[in-house]
Design goal:
2 copies of one chain form a homodimer. Chain A is built from 8 helices and 9 strands. The first copy, chain A, has 206 residues and is of the alpha/beta class. Chain A folds into 2 domains: 142 residues, P-loop containing nucleotide triphosphate hydrolases (Rossmann fold, 3-Layer(aba) Sandwich), CATH 3.40.50; 61 residues, Guanylate Kinase phosphate binding domain (2-Layer Sandwich). The mean pLDDT of chain A is 89. Chains A, B: It is an enzyme of class 2 (transferase).
Chain lengths: 206, 206
């Protein structure tokens, strides 16, 4: 009914909380969301498509974009850069489409600095015990790594204050419903829509 | 899971926009909401129950409560007072239950002054034309009254800026879904829940 820019939603939370599972289920149910496509310097793998799986760049190109503040966040894993291109996000929002970004806490805090108008959702574990179980059950981590990850998770939970919403991931389907309610209600915020509504009235009164 | 105070939701909007219909349908679907019970000086009618339909007070009692700022809003129709008692609302919220208030724009603005922490939802007509039709179709109003009400409605729409959300009442069930999303997401706001979540963690770490 009214023309409106899209909203950037950021789902984040401690390691092991289930961000990926929630995001996956959300995308099955909310087809109008656009997942943010990352940029990387790693090699394209067989079957991957540029602009679908990732935007593939050389290290020189990537570092130039960092300098120009063209990345909402970025990090280096092993010897490859990964990041979120500002231009792609802004162009998608401009078309009136929401963008959804699922990301680690450190990355989310970078996005918050570069794009404070985003809506930041913190996924919270039902309990520390449960979080520990989930990390252990991945089975890929040593005892020492589990302890470290749990310590890290506690630190990350302290960073909750930078977020707009807290969603507890007790059951995936409940967490997804909560995120959907946030997406819906954010589009109803008066400061986003009042101008357009008043314009509709003015047009009718002409 | 966490203990939390209830939230006061205020649904308002211009005359004829369909506030009553939306509220009624919402209450059929959201049984956990508590409808705010008004206070009045009018006589109790057969079948009505004090503390259920209204809180019934004498004019002297009511005017004393006005003086003591014990009403979130009030108005006088013909020779009777009607108002929203602060104490009832606050006690219900304290129990962790949400309170829902459906009210005229003037009353909502009074509530906003006395209880700014409420969540204010403005119900918006799909068009001025549609609003006019709805007022005319009530059939009880003269041509002159319709023109006046429409003029009034335009003024009320200008007051949208005092509200937190704008919900267009294109179809009742859509409007109700939007209000339900607002109720759900307001309970997920970080500033409401972060303290309790952090406490849960501290308790676990003891």
């Amino acid at each position: 009914m009214i023309e409106e820019k899209g909203i950037l939603f950021i789902l984040s939370g401690p390691s092991g909380v289930g961000k990926g599972t929630v995001r996956k289920k959300l995308f099955e149910e909310a087809s109008e969301l656009q997942y943010s496509i990352s940029m990387t310097t790693r090699d394209m793998r067989p079957g991957e498509v540029d602009g679908v799986d990732y935007f593939y760049k050389s290290v020189e190109e990537f570092e130039k974009l960092i300098e120009e503040n063209q990345l909402l966040e970025y990090a280096k894993y092993v010897s490859n850069y990964y990041g979120t291109p500002r231009k792609y996000v802004e162009e998608t929002l401009e078309k009136g489409q929401d963008v959804f970004l699922e990301i680690e806490v450190q990355g989310a805090l970078q996005v918050k600095e570069n794009f404070p108008e985003g809506v930041f959702i913190f996924l919270f574990p039902p309990s520390l015990e449960e979080l520990k179980n989930r990390i252990v059950n991945r089975g890929t981590e040593s005892q020492e790594l589990v302890v470290n990850r749990l310590k890290e998770a506690r630190k990350e939970i302290e960073m909750m204050d930078a977020y707009d919403y807290v969603v507890v991931n007790d059951r995936v389907e409940h967490a997804v419903d909560r995120v959907k309610a946030i997406i819906k209600s954010e589009h109803l915020k008066r400061e986003r829509v009042a101008k357009q509504y008043k314009k509709i009235l003015e047009d009718e009164l002409k």
